[in-house]
Design goal:
The complex is a heterodimer of chains A (337) and B (346). By secondary structure, chain A is mainly alpha-helical. The longest helix of chain A has 36 residues. In chain B, the strands form three sheets. In chain B, strands 7, 8, 9, 10, 11 and 12 form a six-stranded mixed β-sheet that branches. Chain B is globular. The chains are: A mainly alpha (337), B alpha/beta (346).
Chain lengths: 337, 346
């Protein structure tokens, strides 16, 4: 726990500092002093309205959303890797991303223009789709009142590819929406604005807290299911809690940012390298690391090809893939946690 | 698991194309700054009293412009061309990396590529636009993101000459360039008329069967519901795909062999270059009448893939390719003299 006491505060400071830098940088150059002025004034009068809009309506909500989404993906990844005792598990392992993709695709095709609480139809449909897909997978895997780990994984893989095929079919039949659907699938935090921040932050915080409460049980599970049961642990209850909390975080993240890959896979590995294997430390560290990674990736996504922009999901995969391979090559023993 | 649908990513290219992203290689992008640029003067006919002006755009959205627009960002090459054609190019402050015509357009600050996800909202906003011209449905995400920021957005996604004329009229009103719009429209209509005159007595059985290859893989044809379909009909061709509402249709190679077109037309541009020799060498196509007679034409994609003011150039080119004997006299094909067959993009 010693390392955790050092690293978790360090990560938090790192995240805060990176977030501050990210608000300051963008394709449009605004001096840091002016950015501070806008932030302190809260978008008040006397300032250049364009700079206020850029900092207050575009950058700040986007940076906060990257932080929240990254946190949710990092924590969910740690939860699933702990539950499945599988270093390859990620937040999308039991169908959340494909469910969200189907929901978002259907919303884009239907052209439904409604919305709730300032959230657009695509965001809402993605959220509902992610939750429904996970519920479906859980229902499929359930034997009696239990849902064995292996069945969950298998059902997750099968449902994911089935829903993926439905999305592909819809894309094929609705070519006119193809670009928008592909754009969503590649993940982006652009232009989501404050409403997305306001709702996502609560969902993710509740979910991370819920995962944190499961950490002792997840620690017990690392010794195997039999051992955990002999310690008096309800595997059924643990599975249900971890799946519920991690899916909530994933659904919130994916509805706000699209399918952003790799964060939820590599953040837990990085966290374990830094703070050891205990979940009480891994979950917050993974959340912080996820936030930091997504902040950095999004800052790159909106600046490297300036004046244009890249989808952030492409960025995370471009950097996450090699990083993961590096870990695999250099720390073979530690990855399994 | 990250990309459960990655096999459909090649379709993105097709889609880009369908949306008219035709463009040559990226032009050098001078980086824009936020420094306050004085707004260019409005034309003499911009009647400020008509504003606030409420108009209906190509997607049926009602948009209110508080004042005559002086700082316009265009998110599609054809919109850029339309604004320049109406003599209001000096009011453009930002364009896409695909906007290469007229040459001045390539010098303007860039805000991204063609799809919504490639466009930097911050870059758009940093140019302080008072009007953003989007393409159609494709840019819906960008439109939805710009609306809460109080930037007026017009969607211009014409898919027929009629819609293109309507866009000209709309832009004419918005830019205070009504008479220029009218003049341009009349000249376009006259040129269409002139082509029609040449083809007036063309008997139906002499109309050549045309396959317009919009995309190579998956093989996609321009249907009659697209502006390209309209162009083929106006140029005296008979589209091999018919009776469908979808503007663009995938067609199997087998079906193509059965329908055996007399003429194959394919656009070539920038990153999506099509080589005529390669088309002629396709093994499955060796028995096609068009290949055997060598009537495979590669067009300049920048002309034909943009439903903009230069579309008539493309019409004249295609009409001449289909019925060269009817366009023999020098003045016959209007201004289409020497439009390159091979996409000559820098």
């Amino acid at each position: 726990m010693k390392r955790a006491q050092v690293w978790i505060p360090v990560l938090m400071v790192l995240v805060a500092a990176t977030a501050a830098v990210c608000v300051g940088v963008g394709p449009v150059v605004i001096p840091p002093a002016r950015v501070m002025e806008v932030l302190l004034a809260g978008g008040g009068s006397g300032l250049d309205p364009t700079e206020v809009a850029i900092v207050w309506e575009l950058r700040l909500p986007r940076v906060l959303l990257a932080l929240i989404v990254g946190m949710g993906l990092g924590a969910a990844g740690a939860g699933y890797q702990g539950l499945f005792r599988n270093p390859l598990a990620d937040p999308f392992v039991i169908g959340a991303s494909s469910g969200a993709a189907l929901g978002a695709t259907m919303a884009m095709i239907s052209g439904w223009g409604g919305g709730v609480a300032g959230l657009g139809p695509v965001t809402l449909a993605a959220f509902v789709g992610a939750l429904l897909a996970v519920l479906f997978v859980y229902g499929l895997a359930a034997v009696g009142r239990q849902a064995p780990t292996l069945s969950l994984l298998l059902a997750g893989v099968a449902v994911s590819s089935f829903l993926g095929a439905v999305v592909s079919l819809l894309m094929f039949l609705h070519e006119e929406k193809l670009v928008n659907i592909v754009g969503w699938l590649m993940g982006s935090l652009a232009g989501r604005g404050w409403p997305a921040v306001h709702t996502t932050v609560w969902l993710v915080l509740v979910a991370v807290l819920g995962l944190g409460l499961c950490s002792r049980a997840l620690d017990a599970l690392t010794f195997g299911e039999e051992a955990a049961r002999s310690l008096g642990l309800s595997l059924h209850g643990l599975r249900l809690s971890v799946v519920a909390a991690a899916s909530l975080a994933t659904a919130a993240a994916v509805s706000a940012g699209g399918t952003i890959g790799f964060i939820g896979l590599i953040a837990p590995h990085g966290a374990r390298l830094l703070v050891g294997a205990r979940h009480a430390a891994v979950i917050p560290a993974s959340a912080a690391l996820g936030a930091w990674l997504l902040l950095a990736a999004d800052a790159l996504a909106r600046t490297v090809v300036a004046p244009g922009e890249l989808p952030v999901g492409v960025m995370t995969a471009l950097f996450g893939g090699p990083f993961f391979l590096y870990l695999l090559k250099t720390r073979p023993g530690e990855l399994s946690g | 698991m990250m990309f459960p649908h990655s096999h459909s990513i090649p379709l993105l290219g097709l889609c880009l194309w369908l949306a008219g992203a035709a463009g040559c290689g990226r032009a050098g992008a001078p980086s824009p700054s936020t420094s306050a640029v004085p707004p260019p003067p409005l034309g003499p006919r911009a009647v400020a009293e008509q504003f606030p002006l409420t108009v209906t755009d190509g997607l049926g959205r009602e948009v209110t412009l508080p004042a005559p627009p002086r700082r316009i960002v265009s998110l599609a090459p054809k919109n850029t061309e339309l604004v320049f054609a109406l003599g209001a190019g000096d009011r453009l402050v930002g364009v896409t990396t695909y906007c290469n015509y007229p040459p001045e357009a390539a010098e303007l600050p860039k805000v991204g590529g063609f799809t919504s996800s490639s466009i930097s909202l911050e870059q758009v906003l940093g140019l302080r636009p008072d009007l953003v011209l989007c393409a159609g449905e494709l840019h819906r995400p960008t439109m939805e993101q710009l609306e809460p920021l109080h930037v007026p957005v017009l969607a211009l996604g014409a898919e027929s000459l009629r819609e293109l004329y309507a866009e000209l009229e709309l832009l004419g009103a918005v830019l205070g360039r009504g008479s220029e719009a009218k003049r341009l429209m009349e000249s376009m209509q006259q040129r269409v008329e002139r082509v029609q005159d040449r083809l007036r007595d063309l008997p139906p059985e002499q109309r050549l069967k045309v396959f317009y290859q919009v995309w190579e893989d998956p093989l996609t044809a321009a249907g009659p519901a697209s502006y390209l379909g309209e162009l083929i009909a106006l140029a005296g061709g008979e589209n091999i795909v018919s009776a469908a509402d979808a503007p663009y249709l995938r067609i199997s190679e087998e079906e193509l062999l059965v329908r055996n077109p007399d003429v194959i037309i394919a656009p070539s541009m920038g990153t999506f270059r099509i080589d005529r020799e390669q088309l002629l060498r396709r093994p499955a196509w060796q028995n096609l009448r068009a290949v055997q007679t060598g009537r495979v034409y590669v067009l300049d994609g920048d002309l034909v893939s943009r439903c903009g003011p230069r579309l008539i150039d493309a019409l004249e080119t295609v009409a001449r390719q289909l019925s060269p004997e009817r366009f023999e006299s020098p003045e016959a094909a209007g201004r289409s003299n020497g439009t390159p067959e091979q996409g000559a993009s820098p």
